[in-house]
Amino acid sequence: MSQSLVNAIIAMREEDALKITKELIEQGTDPFEVLATCGTAMETIGDRFEKGEAFIPELILAGEMLKQITDFLKPLLGDGKQAGDALGTFVLGTVEGDIHDIAKDIVAFVLEINGFNVVDLGVDVPPAKFVETVKETGAKIVGLSGFLTMAYEPMKLTVEALKDAGLDDVKVIIGGGQVDDQIREYTGADAFGTDAMTAVKYAKQWN
Amino acid sequence: MTENTPTFTPSPEFLAREKRFNDAVSLTKPDRVPIVSLAGVFIPRYMGMTSAEALYDYERMNQAWKDAMVKLNWDMAPLAFVVFPGPVMELLGLKTFKWPGFDLGENATYQFVEDEYMLADEYDEFLADPGDFTIRKLMPRMSKTLEPLGMLPPINWFSSGYTILNLGAMLAGVPPISNMLETLVKVGQEMTKFTTGQAKMVGELAEMGYPTLASAFTEAPFDWISDMFRGMKGVMLDMYRCPDKLKAAIDVMTPFCIQSALMVAQQTGNKRIFIPLHRGSAGFMSDEQYAEFYWPSLKKVFMALIEAGLTPMPFLEGDYTPRLKYLAELPPGKVLGHFDIVDKQKVKEILGDTMCFWGNVPAQLLVTGTTEQVKDYVKELIDIFGDNGGLIVDGAVDGIPPESKPENVEAMTEAVFEYGVY
Question: C-alpha angle with apex A44: A38 to A49, nearest 5 degrees?
């Protein structure tokens, strides 16, 4: 594994990270190994985020670096699958009537770097869309995001819609700055979170 | 002082309410803990209107404001100009908002559409000529009606009588531009209807004995660039990719953030300035990044408003606990901090001698809790902050959520009158 690539990504040296990737490929390194190296760096950034040592700018820039590196590597990867299968499928969206996507995108990102397959339905997602997607994907975990207090009601309706569709075994976590255990109870969700790492914690527990 | 009523003579009740508020802000014990809310759409909803009606029926909305004050008897009426006029936004074809009665459900909350209205590679263009960039690039991107502004040549081309005549007059006759000008006349007429109504409402509230909290708002310069220009993702990448340009843009907008607030304060006579803060709270960035990118320009805004004799009222949205030490740099008794989620004991410890605490009955309690829970929370606030008078009670996030149970808001109010007498 290239420690210099890990270091460049962790230190947010974007240009270096790309330069080192290109050098590694020129030197004949297996592109899958380069990807795995990126994965190691992303895990470290995830850990730092969890500990409050890295913040949103670092998550966003790390995501951008990863995207540029995978774009560069893609033609070299052929049809081969990435090493390791996804942990499980997580259906995620901001509930109906709420168009805020920032927190949801961060949750999607940290779930992905932790190995989950995330189906992101975007914002203003009606309950029926969550139900339909869970049925299609067979996902066992749903994340409902909402920034506004207005989101409490559609969160509740979505939990009810999942139950009405007979999807009782699907676990639901609600997330956002204005949720707590009282709102979890109100909506009938299984868990709540006010930061992205809580979603990862429950997803791993439920997986 | 109130708006557009030069002959207004304040009643003893009006003066008593102002004094109660001002005492709390200056950390002097008033006769009772004041209760003043940022509540926006809660007010018309409480009075039986939908959110959509509140944005479209100015008359009923203004009446709701007055009726709610009679019913709740707070110390000040909530912010004026906080429920935006739907018809004006429609005429402007604003792409920066979605709102109930137009493209959201009738009881949805109006929401800001964050986007990269300025692209990363456009900093140089903006910095070279902010006015030109605003007119020809930003305004067309933000408003469908103003899209024809993108057809204009550089604005400094109009710097002579010859070009005003030959170029300007000619452009005024080009159909997209003349249509835009016609629409803008309607925008102006509609907006006048709205602002006249608001000014009348503020005047009538004053006659009833209720000062209005504020008519002006401004933002932290960092937030202005993040919210209005670059979006969160954009600005956070800029912190790494082009920090100097980001800082230069913040410097360009800092005088605007100060002067726009001074201008409205002068026009209305209302010295209280609302400052909703967005991207500086815990989790968004590190303390070092806050100190480097966020705080210096915000502090300039605070200090300039204080020097002008105004009262800045930041809404410290999110968890502001790690930033309390910066707020402690501000002069005592001059700033009113509206708190959302925060470690209250830490606020008392770090800011107790600096800043009056305003808030923070949680939205969760107001929407789904019981009246007992709400009253207990108010009691706790009074226990923590009451000793030096530095407390004003309100809900936490944006005041009172529109979905709050009326009985919980009434319980919050009763608790202040019951337990808040010093």
Answer: 125
